[in-house]
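agent: user wants the full assembly modeled, not chains individually. Plan: 1) parse entity lines 2) check alphabet per entity 3) run joint structure prediction 4) return tokens. Steps 1-2 passed, two entities, 673 residues total. Proceeding.
--- entities ---
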Amino acid sequence: MTLLDDPPPPADTGSEYAIIAKGLTKKFNSFTAVDHVNLKVEKGTIFGYLGPNGAGKSTTIRMLCTLLTPSSGTATIAGYDLTSQPAEIRHRIGLVAEKLILYPRLSAVENLMFFGRMYGMEASHLRKRIDELLELVQLTPFKDKLIGGFSSGMRQRVNIIRGLLHNPEILFLDEPSNALDPQSTRFVRDLVKELKAKGHTIILTTHIMEEADELSDRIEIIDHGKIIGRGSPRELKDKFNADNMLDVFLSLTGRGLRDSASDRVVFTGA
Amino acid sequence: MAARNQTLLATWYIAQRDLLDFWRGKMVVAIFVLMPILLMGMFGYMYPTTPKPNTVVETIPSAYPNLRLALVLDDHSSVAYTFESAFTDIAQSQKLFRVLEYPDYVTARQAIVRGDLSGIMRIPEGFGSAVLSGMQGTVELTVDETDAQVAAVVQGEVTTIVGIVSASMSTSIVKSMMGDRMNPTFVIQPVSVSRVPLISGNSSNFQFLAPGFMALTVVMGTLLGVGTAISKEKEQGTMDGLMACPISMTAVVVGKTFAQIIRGLIQAMIVLGLSIVLFGVRVYGSPLLMLLALTLGVMSFVGVGIIMSTFAPDQETAQMMMMLLLQPMMFLSGIIFPVSQLPDWLQLFGKSLPLYYAADAVRRVMVLNVGLDVIGEDLIILVVYAIITMTIALLIFRKTMAK
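--- prediction returned ---
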């Protein structure tokens, strides 16, 4: 695997944290999706954010990505205030959502060029960056093929480098290995490790506990909108006297199925 | 300044991407081209394409040629036969009716009920003796009333032909009574009407419909296009990607609007080209002014499309919402039916739709060659609509997207 050329921009805030959230809350009418969540994510680490379906993971991520306005609470992301400086934050974060942020009728390069331009990247620099990233995920031979014809593994690889185009300090990875074959899963996980090694801060959400265990430096588990467990994978396993993260997760969140249905059809994650 | 440049660039790239995406959807492009063809073809051939005659003795054009008309002859006088053959001659030579002789009224009526005939003209017993004794002869007409449009045409055309035959009958009567002392036409019809067309040259009736269709097609395309563009991005998840980019939402909305305007204008050109080629429509006014009116027409609707698709949870709902708006608009904006024909409250509704003004402006420029002085009012109304709806759309879009 080739290495990325440019390292992320140096930290200019003096803080050792990439993300600090205080009392972050999101209410949808009477339903509280995220309830006074406090988070601290150290720079250059992988932060595993876990929880059952409907626990409030995606809502938290969407708030931190400036896609949702919090009902209350504050957050500082890459040193900027979430509510007053969203534009600054957007330059410094990358989003790899569960749903692909790619246009099926556009080729890989066209997709990447489009989004790169949305970040105001200069054309020649952008082209160089795209070539580099496509090489990194081994998709150079397919760069001019339409995304619609890609396999899910290929799509996800393009989806990830799309989030890396502007070389963001912080990368949000929402279930990056969801529905991928073992080869692609391995590839994605190695890529995540490499990104961390390059100095990126990564917020990872996943339902694959083994993945969280392997990748995360620190894990927080959210349920019913509240943080119910935090620590390094080692600490958590020791605390619950468990061999694996799955047992830790089940001890914390219980074995009951999380069936909930809203009357509203939501497209952008639960 | 740099931020503004970036917004402008982003707007342009979003428009470019939308158009590329649209162009790549081959089926969508095919339907995009087919839609105006279908609409034009349908209405173009449905409406009469030749002008009405000035005087009764000239040609009688019809939008419904060769309708099947039964003739039932219950009177066997020579007057009845003469009348019948004169009627049939005119009806068939002008291709108005295919005249079929039926032995009796009951059989002919059954044929109407079966749908084989459009009407029956019966010459009742006593027709000949009435005419010969100096009284008015009467023929009886039965039409297929299940089709109101055809019924009206049959009624009108039979009346016209009977009028022509009667006129020639009275001409010979006047001649036999007065010789050459008086012009028989003067006795029969002392005053006649001669029509002077509004625009010179032999224009087709479609000339007046085509501009309205241009406006309608463009607005339909815009509404459906923008609705789909936004709800599709919401549904497939790419909207999140756009929203997470450091660009203003104005760039997203305006970029998408721009793409729709270009699409709309292309469609308008298809409509115009078709009306020129198929229906002999002519452009009398300034094409630039027409384009301006159409562009403003599109802009007055984009906001509405954005508002609807922002609220709609998915593409299907968005499209159905658009149809809900489009259907009444099609009929109430003076494109197919004149607005003055509607009841007052519906007129008020029709005139509150921007399509009415867009169609009116395009029609006046294209057909009557008027300038800004005449259509200025229409354009101002469209601009006001555009500003109001786009402002609301932007506000709602901003609010809803971050909710």
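agent: reporting back. The first helix of chain A runs from residue 57 to 64. Strands of chain A lie at 17-28, 31-42, 46-50, 72-77, 80-81, 93-96, 170-174, 201-205, 218-223, 226-231.
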